[in-house]
Amino acid sequence: MNLCLIGHNFRYELEKLVRIFMPFEKIEFFDTEVSAECFAVTVLSENTAKAYLKLYEKTAECETKLESQDPKEQELKLAIALFECFVELTNYKPQWGILTGVRPAKLFSRLLKTDGLENTRRYFRDYLKVSEKKISLCEKTHKDEENITSLSKSNSFSLYVSVPFCPTRCSYCSFVSHSVMQAKKLIPQYVEFLCEEIKKSGKIASDLGLNLETIYIGGGTPTTLDAEQLTRVMKTVSSSFDLSNLREYTVEAGRPDTITAEKLIAIKNGGATRISINPQTMNDAVLKEIGRQHTAIQTIEAFNLARGLGFDNINMDLIAGLPTDTLESFKDTVNAILKLDPESVTVHSLSMKRAATLSTTGQLPEIEIGKTASDMVDFACETLSQKGIEPYYMYRQSKTVGNLENVGYAKKGYECLYNVYIMDETHTILGCGASAVTKLREPDGELIERIFNFKYPYEYLSRFLEIISRKDGINKFYERFKEEM
Predict the structure, then answer these.
(1) 148-472 topology per CATH
(2) pLDDT tens-digit series, residues 138-158
(3) Rounded to the nearest 10 degrees, how much is the dihedral formed by the CA atoms of 229, 232, 237, 242?
(4) 35, 81, 298, 416: least CB-packed within 10 angstroms?
């Protein structure tokens, strides 16, 4: 697609706007009108912002008046004009309008403090073109997120432990993970080195007087480790860190086909207070399509096994917009999950790859997927809320179907604190393991610095001493803020 920018250079925002409707389209930029099968012309003059759009055989144009020469308003009005053209030609209005940011609830909260509720709602509705449903979602989640972030103090931190192995790699996956078949021989040494990094991190946290609030062991699928390996990792955590003030300890058990009684007992004895059992869908045909080897029955069996062993805080993940899934099938999944009665449910919107569009037809297949996924997430929100499982945190990713969101739902008192802390960047997160990122936040301030571990397990193992040496950056960071702690 040709994107023509005339009288301005607002390339970044307008490119993101096009990506809402055409996430995989190759975009070329011009400062004059250059026609093509698909092209857009955006023109900024002294008093107006104009857009002209051609998609195959259809055309549309829109013009809006400028109220000032403020560059932010100029960019916004150009985006609105182009958005309205896309809506007219595709007969599809994404519920988040022109908003493309990762944390819409945080923007809502910031505006609320300066402009008040009605003006904030009006800005989202009239300028950002956000639907009433999503505005209400922002209003709801920002309150719960603020209640959770208020628990964190200047010396608070969380711990993330990465286990980047899975039984198989899902077709939609964008995380760094390796199938066990490919990487099984690496796991024993990986566990050994991971424990050494945990010990090093615990020593640093102790020396700095940091207060551990939450722990999250994720991946990948941590339950690809056997019970003995899980026990070793969790014992290392408990012996390396002061857990006396810990509010939450999550282990992402993940795929049902990796869950056994022995592993669950190891997790419970290790101190976990919360686990995830993640079916993604309860439709066996869709599971097969995305490369999962378990069945819906195995999900039910794994959940009941965990309940029988005393786990009273279980989360389940679902994905809206999976290849070959339908609205009716997704409704069946939500209803099947509700029968199990988990304490929380996270509803993700599929982050698309090109391959995810192959089962669709038409010239703009991503829009077809987006319309269905939008109905799916609306159904989940309404149905879960009716059952007392309310939205409490939200974030967004690029290239999600329909430009939609990921939302955590929970019964009162079962909200996942770590999820909020990591997305809000509330406090420091110490990361251990391959692909983990240590995110350092200034106490009572806004400065954030990151220390990256190597992504892949083989890199993690071969360059482990370099990873350990990078940990010294944690001390150097906090050295600057001694008086604030």
Answers:
(1) pyruvate-formate lyase- activating enzyme (3.80.30)
(2) 999 999 999 999 999 999 999
(3) 150
(4) 35
